[in-house]
Amino acid sequence: MKGRATFDVEQYRVRGRFELRVDDDGAAVLEFSGATLLGGHREEIVVSVLDDTLRVLDRERGRFYEGNEVERLIREETRVPGDWTRALLRVLGEARVCPAERLETRPDGLEGVGPDGPFRLKWRGGHLESAVWPDPAPGETFRDRLEVDYDWTPQGLSRLEARLPARGWRVRLEAD
What we know:
By secondary structure, the chain is mainly beta.
């Protein structure tokens, strides 16, 4: 999937171009290049996840982060600790991050409860249409959830939008 991306996190909004590749083994790479709304701040990063390890290459600043360093970087920049590797895997529809203590199959999806709370997956026409996951960053301030919507065309995934609505965070990827 290639196209336009928008990241809205805290007071930070950046738009740009992206390419997302996910292979059959669950390895994923997101390359992004963009700028803040008025162009005062550039970003060029590569985010990858392989074998449950999140990696970030910040090309703009010449830095590389891996595993716990990524979690620490996000916590320092947003002041929000969370399980961001699991969140990314869930956004990408990775089934192995869906351990269920209780699972109910429905004609249009699944509902269940995992160790971190309830979740719901819906599909249409053989494709994942939406997902609602527990908050990847539970805390005392917010009671949130991770919501993800997917749009499909015959060519493949055309839009992916992930939100933490109580926080007002949003990541939107739209294919060209």
